[in-house]
Q: What sequence folds into this?
């Protein structure tokens, strides 16, 4: 298994975390975004969107961290991580949708604006990010985990940009249940970290 | 079945389209966003994010259009719309991730900035939207459908904001394969439209 990766990408870290939680090993190949490697023809053949992460599992190529989480959970993790039944599956998907919206375009975007000087409105991103944290806080005040009262890919998906929020100048101080959940994720067997967490 | 809905929301339309394709009927209850109904306590109990659509299927409440598509497909549609096997499932998920990114924050955002005067950078949204259209064009130049060479929730998911692109002042003229795909979706049994499409 090979992961086209970038150490500082929260989206790529999400996959490294999932691989580790499942006890899977993948060769990591860094894609040099500063040198525009993601826009080179060989990489666009793997992922037409020109983004990390991309997983190559013995010739099965999957792009996008949401799709890769779902793939790994279904293929190597089973029902525990991603249920098959409609209602339970939808409950996990709700939080993965929040991951793609409030955490990625809120918390994650605030981080790349500040840390990597990418364009965009910091205030707009922080507002969206805090709106997401409010929703997470309300859920986690009464539950240990985001979906199904167990650790699933919903948690793995949302974790990176929440745990990196301070790099987008968003304090987690007003969100005590979120902070406890971050600690809870860190205590799971197989947890691996990344710079900034 | 009840759908908390807004006629002009592409995210809500995505669910109305899926319901119709599956031959399902739902009572539509309009949530008056102009009057802030989505921020009222009764609605936040249904969806802590304060957004339409929300589906109530005989007491099972699902928020977020991605989660609702997955729910409806799994519960009422079967393998045809959303496969169970890891690789096929991931192929569908890849395009649903593009729906949450390039089409929602690109095409969809350009539309709400122009049509509903919401804040944000029009140029940034249009650039992201066109990047998504390029990826769709490349795929659809060689395939009738986005995933698995059949009509799935990947197509249903991406369709609304692509078909509404001109409302964000993004022409589909440079994307002939995308335009043919839009026509193909419109010809599917059970297709329903919305204002602007």
A:
């Amino acid at each position: 298994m090979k992961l086209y990766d970038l150490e500082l990408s929260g989206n790529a870290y999400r996959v490294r975390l999932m691989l580790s939680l499942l006890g899977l090993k993948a060769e990591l190949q860094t894609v040099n975004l500063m040198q525009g490697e993601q826009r080179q023809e060989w990489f666009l053949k793997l992922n037409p969107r020109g983004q990390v992460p991309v997983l190559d599992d013995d010739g099965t190529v999957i792009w996008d961290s949401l799709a890769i989480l779902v793939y790994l959970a279904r293929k190597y993790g089973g029902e525990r991580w991603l249920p098959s039944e409609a209602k339970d599956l939808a409950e996990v998907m709700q939080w993965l949708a929040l991951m793609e919206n409030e955490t990625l375009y809120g918390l994650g975007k605030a981080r790349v604006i500040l840390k990597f000087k990418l364009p965009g409105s910091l205030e707009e991103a922080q507002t969206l990010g805090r709106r997401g944290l409010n929703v997470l806080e309300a859920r986690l005040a009464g539950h240990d985990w985001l979906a199904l009262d167990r650790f699933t890919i919903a948690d793995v998906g949302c974790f990176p940009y929440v745990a990196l929020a301070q790099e987008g100048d968003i304090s987690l101080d007003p969100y005590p249940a979120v902070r406890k959940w971050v600690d809870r994720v860190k205590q799971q067997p197989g947890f691996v970290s990344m710079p900034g967490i």
